[in-house]
Amino acid sequence: MTQHLPWRSLRETTGLTLREVGRRTGISSGRLSIIERGVAPTEDEARLIRECLIGPATERRETMA
């Protein structure tokens, strides 16, 4: 099950455009737009977007320690 996150808010906080996130993740900007409007991403899509916007899980754990 994928986690629902405020994808658009996260993306806007980073200053990245849909096109840039798409380039970094390999997910089309059209699909990203659909995800931002509330359609749940696949687990792989969620992981790729999360890593693009807030970094890998291991990196987040290290900064929290």
Would you mind describing this structure in some detail?
By secondary structure, the chain is mostly helical. The chain has one domain. The protein is built from 5 helices and no strands. α2 crosses α3. The longest helix is centred in the last third of the chain and has 12 residues. The radius of gyration is 11 Å and the shape is globular. The model has no long low-confidence stretch (mean pLDDT 86).
Brief synopsis:
Helices cover 68% and strands 0% of the residues.
Give unreliable regions as ranges. Answer: none
Largest sheet: none
Mean pLDDT: 86
Structural class: mainly alpha
Summarize the amount of helix as a percent range. 55-70%
Q: What gap, in angstroms, lies between the N and C termini?
A: 27 Å
Shape verdict: globular
Individual helix count: 5
**Cα radius of gyration in angstroms:** 11 Å
Portion of residues in beta strands equals under 5%
**Succession of helices and strands:** HHHHH
- The domain tally reads 1
- Give the tally of β-strands: 0
